[in-house]
Amino acid sequence: MKNIYLLGATGSIGEQTLDIIEKQRDDFKLIGISGYSNFDKLVEITRKFLPEIVVVKDKFDKEKLVKLFPTIKVEFGRQGLKTLATYHKEDQDAYLINALVGMVGLEPTIEAIKIERDILLANKETLVVGGHLVSLLKKQYQFKLYPIDSEHNALWQLMNHENTKDIKRLIITASGGSFRGLSRDELKNVSVSDALKHPNWSMGNKITIDSATMMNKGFEVIEACYLFDLDIDKVDTVIHKESMVHSLVEFNDGSILAHVSHPDMHLPISYAMNYPNRKVTHIKPFDLMLLNNVSFQTMDLERYPCLNFAINAFKIGGSMRTVLNAANEAAVDLFLSGKIKFLDIETIIEEAMRKHQVIDFPSLEEIYELDSTIKEEIYKKFR
Fold first, then answer.
1. 25, 112, 169, 307: least buried by Cβ within 10 Å?
2. Cα–Cα distance, 311 to 344 (Å, whole number)
3. What residues in the chain have per-residue pLDDT under 50?
4. Which of 316, 333, 351 represents a domain boundary (last residue)?
């Protein structure tokens, strides 16, 4: 039985992870959870699974939860996430599942690595911002890192037992997001509610906006470079509106392998949790006739400049990726709160990157300090 430490239990990935744990009670036991944005849902999860430790946003939420569950250990904030990630340090038959959104996910991942705990990763920022740190830690500690994003999980399945030297390129598909049919001019006055209507996937607000700007795909390109140790020039993206082909791998001999399934996150999460075995899921059987309607479209970097920002940030390296992420997090937050327009997201990111003086190999604390500084500067302009 695997013990599960779940960061981000109340989000979309967290909920689907809990579905799998509930269906496989003989295989998994939930030991710890965190949840920041939905206290009521966190209470429901705690009542249902009775974990040993729960991490909440702040001291106020901690006091409320302690009253409800006096026998459960409750922690809060940044330190709480570190405590959860390393809880029962001697527990080697365990997974840390990182389904957090944003920079907050980086530090607990690093702490789990240092106790050689295997990690199932959905938190993009861990590798976007801290990929250089994770790469260094790989040389010092023994741990497994399994991706549970649908695209990277698909690539993992396609590349399993293959020699990376034989890979010509990885091809990551993108739905195009909520505004894929609109021109640049039509994007000027789109609403928040329209932006949150993703045509294919049910995701959290932040990642749905990232999908509409294509920043999400830029993050995925960076992630792929670190996960599979490939140069960014070997990672391509294409528009695939149907979200049935999740990724493809082209080999030097001319072969192309594709991963096909319905767009359901239960599949990649289940694959990672049960690896190297496969378990039956509730996902409906795939009808091959659906492939008669599959389409692919060349990615237009002028239409989606955020993807280009991400590629350039990776090539520049160092702290530029922190600036990319921090500016994006702040800009998306401002858009969701109605303080800026959709296209302002791009302008804010581009300006932050243009002004930045790069630190070649930023430490964890330098990353957090820079993240805070960049966000504070951006928020000041729109108060």
1. 25
2. 19
3. none
4. 316
Task: State residue 310's pLDDT score.
Answer: 98
Six token digits for residue 269 = 């999460």
Identify whether residues 237 and 211 lie together within a single domain.
Answer: yes
Both 156 and 181 in a single domain? yes
pLDDT digits (tens, 9 = 90+) for 161-212: 899 999 999 999 999 888 988 989 999 999 999 899 877 766 789 989 999 9
Within a 10 A sphere around the Cβ of 93, how many other Cβ atoms? 8
Evaluate the CA torsion angle 146, 171, 295, 219 in order and state its sign.
Answer: positive
- Strand 2-7 with 28-34, pairing: parallel
- The set of residues, in sequence order, having a beta carbon less than 8 Å from that of 117 and lying 6+ positions away, is 5, 85, 86, 91, 92, 94, 95, 96, 143
Domain enclosing residue 356, as ranges: 317-383
> Which of 296, 316, 336 is at the close of a domain?
316
Looking at the fold, whether 7 and 138 belong to one and the same domain comes out as yes
Q: What is the dihedral of CA 21, 27, 29, 30, to 10 degrees?
A: -30
pTM of the shown model: 0.94
Confidence at residue 25, expressed as pLDDT on a 0 to 100 scale = 95
Q: How many domains does the chain have?
A: 3
Q: Which of 68, 78, 75, 79 is nearest to 45 (CA)?
A: 68
Task: Name the CA dihedral angle for 78, 80, 83, 88, rounded to a multiple of 10 degrees.
Answer: -150
Based on the domain organization, do 29 and 108 belong to the same domain? Answer: yes
Which tens digits make up the pLDDT trace of 122-142?
A: 999 999 999 999 999 999 999
